[in-house]
Outer membrane protein beta-barrel domain-containing protein (Chryseobacterium ginsengisoli), 222 residues
Amino acid sequence: MKKILLLAAVAVMGMSVSAQEFRFGPKVGFAMSTMKIDENQDDLGARKMSPKYTFYVGGMAEYKINDNFGFQAEVLYSPLGAKEKIDGIDAGVVYVGEQTKVNLGTLLVPISAKYFITEGFSVAAGANFGVILTAKQKTVIGSDFISIDVEDEDGSGEVDIKKDIKKLNIAPFVGVEYMLENGLFFDARYSLGVSNLSNDNSGGKVTNSFAQIGVGFKFGGN
C-alpha cells in the first residue's frame, strides 16, 4: 500500500513538473505615450498632451503554471513623455506659437498574470511599475520667420525638470500576445497611468499613459 501511495505521489509530482514551463528572452517595440495635466484635479480643466511616438527595449521571463495560467515579469527601458503645441497670437506681422516636448526616461517593470486561451494565444493583466530616471522638457517659441529654443544653462535646449516630477509611475495594463511554435511572439498592451507625477503642492495632477506594440523571442520551455 505504501509503495502504491509513493508511486502515486511521484506520478502527481511528475505531472505537475511537466505542466510547468519557464521561458525568457528579449523584446523590443513601438510605444505611443501621452500625458494628462489637470491643474485642479477635477477633470473639468484637464488637458491631454499630444502623443509622443517612441520605442522600448528589454527582456522578459514567463513562468507557466499549467496549460492555462502563468505569470510574466519584464524589465524594459522607454523614453516616454508627450508633446504639446500652443497656438499663439497674430501680431499683424508674425504668428507666434509655442511647442513643448517632455521626455521621461523610464525604467519599466511590468508584472502580469496570463491566461492562455490556446498554447500560442494569451491575454494578460497586471501593472507597470515605472521608475523615472530622467525628466527633461524642451520648449520652442516659433513664428513665421524664426524659432527660438528656451535653453537651460548648458545650452542643450532642454531643461531638467526631474525635481518637479515624482520618480514612480504606476500604470495598470491589459494586453494580448501571440507566440509561434519557434518562440517568436508579438504582443500589444495599454497601460493607464494612475500615479500623480506632479511634485507641485498646489494640487495639480499629471499622469502618463502609454500603448505598446512589440516583438520578441522566448527561449526555454519543455
